[in-house]
Amino acid sequence: MNAGVVTVLIAMLGGAIRVSTPFMFVAVGECLTEKSGRVNLGLEGTLVLGAMVAYAISYHTGSPWAGVLAAGIAGSALGAMHGSICSLPRVNDVAVGIAMMLFGTGVAFFFGKPYIQPTAPRLTSIPFGGFSDDLNLRSALDINPLFFVGIAVAVIMAWAFANTRWGLIVRTVGDSAPAARAMGISVDLVRFLSTTVGGFLAGVGGAFLSLSYPGSWNQGLSSGQGLMAVALVIFARWSPLRCVLAALLFGAAGALGPALQSVGVTQGYYFFNAAPYILTLALMIASSSATRSARDMPGELSMAK
Predict the structure, then answer these.
(1) Domains of the chain by start residue, with CATH
(2) DSSP per position, the chain
(3) pLDDT the model gives residue 51
(4) What does the pLDDT look like over 168-225, one tens digit per residue?
């Protein structure tokens, strides 16, 4: 195989692992939220706020893992706000999500200005490429622990949906609120908790952006990844495990431009950098079949009514 092709494939492998991690956390968190019958379009704001909080806490404490935890707590706060507002009568969760997205990004930009220049401690990656003499492969296989945490969360969530009482309750609330109420389940509480946990996971995804890749804080850090992750959940048909696979696909698409640039392909560079956004649009069109959506979509989602 041509050396240039091998280099591109290796770069895309490393990029898929790195770029997919925030997608993974946001998508799995949104999967939980939507399984309960609620849509949270505010995860872009949660992602940005989580990135800012993680960087600030890491800078002040010297512990990047403290930053990850703080980012999750900040994401939980936004998720709890979203859940509380949406539990009020005649409130549209899509409109609230857009408002929360603007609120989260605004808070992050306002309080994050002092942290644009300082350097905070970053999360340390685990080197899995020690067996190889290829520097590119060794670099690609330097994997952040959050990548494995995200996969573990998706596996546990998928198992819980299928095998636990908690999973049955969430799925029942998401499929039929009247049936859940008839069983004595508090629909608002289940959705509030699901949205809060989903916000926590999205905040952790933001921590990865500022503390691992790209590993800095600035106001253009997210570039719409939170919104793309919501589309990714629809493409994954509300399955946590398929969310992981879809995140890896998006990550590989995001790594295509830098991978080609690494072998000297500069023509059309900006077009290849737009690959994740083009892929999002293509997947939304390809997965827009009403029949397939009705089969897997939680019945209580506003888009299902």
Answers:
(1) 17-120+146-304 (1.10.3470)
(2) --HHHHHHHHHHHHHHHHHHHHHHHHHHHHHHHHHTT---TTHHHHHHHHHHHHHHHHHHHS-HHHHHHHHHHHHHHHHHHHHHHHTSTT--HHHHHHHHHHHHHHHHHHHHGGGSSS----PPPEE--TT---HHHHHHTEE-HHHHHHHHHHHHHHHHHHHSHHHHHHHHHHH-HHHHHHTT--HHHHHHHHHHHHHHHHHHHHHHHHHTSS-S--TTSSTTHHHHHHHHHHHTTT-HHHHHHHHHHHHHHHHHHHHHHHTT--TTHHHHHTHHHHHHHHHHHHT--HHHHHHHS-TTSGGG-
(3) 96
(4) 999 999 999 999 999 999 999 999 999 999 999 999 999 999 999 888 898 878 777 7
